[in-house]
Amino acid sequence: MFPVYSYIKVRAYSTSSPKDTNNSNFDQFIPAAIYEDAFTMKKAILKDNAGMVGIYMLTNKLTGDIYVGQSIDLSYGRKRFLNYFNLSYLSRRNELIISRALIKYGYSKFSVTILEYCDKCELDVREQHYFDTLNPQYNIQKVAGGSSKGLILSEESLRLKNKISQALKGVYLGDKAYWYGRTMSAATKEIMSSTRKGELNPLYGKSHSEASKELMRQKAAASNPPSGDKAGRKYSEETKLLMSSKRGNPVNIYEKCTSV
Hints:
alpha+beta; elongated; DNA binding; six-stranded mixed β-sheet; GIY-YIG endonuclease; Intron_endoG1; mitochondrion; endonuclease activity; 6 strands
């Protein structure tokens, strides 16, 4: 028996597997919890799994495709699982198939399944178990705990990646975009801001090295190079003063006079 959370947030119990997945191998598992709507149940997902270590699965309810991942914290903090609820993160990581799918279909089209809770030392073993059994379509690399950086994909993986990539092309833009016409309330903005202040800020207590600063200066200069007649031009001091006088604000200087 495991908890299933409905759209109206009333807890019920069931022994059935997620009805939207097209993977028959899932029937052999008894997941820890299933949340039928990633959008409306976000708060419940984060609250119920605060500080929990485990393996999770995202299921596209329209296509049945799945993504399997691990997290040392299935809720709050700057952890991998929470990043999937961050559109800014998804946009930066659009090379990931799951990122593009979440942006295209929207959170409400995905369910979240906590496959199991486990010890931190068991994460890689358990994640690999689900990779081998479920063969998730949204995972590019099916090696637990690994990184796709420098990975050489097999012909079959490349074929599958290309197939899914083609299916995800044409991400909704303009009035078809998921967030089009929506605005965040002041309360929501304040909550988002509070999660990035002080020690929660990823740059808290950190400082850029001189090498990093120089690299940022070079990139800034390269992105905004002088153009046209101004490229490479040096101005005389007289010209600089003239330009300053035209662009600056006038300053009036008053002298106190004493009447005789």
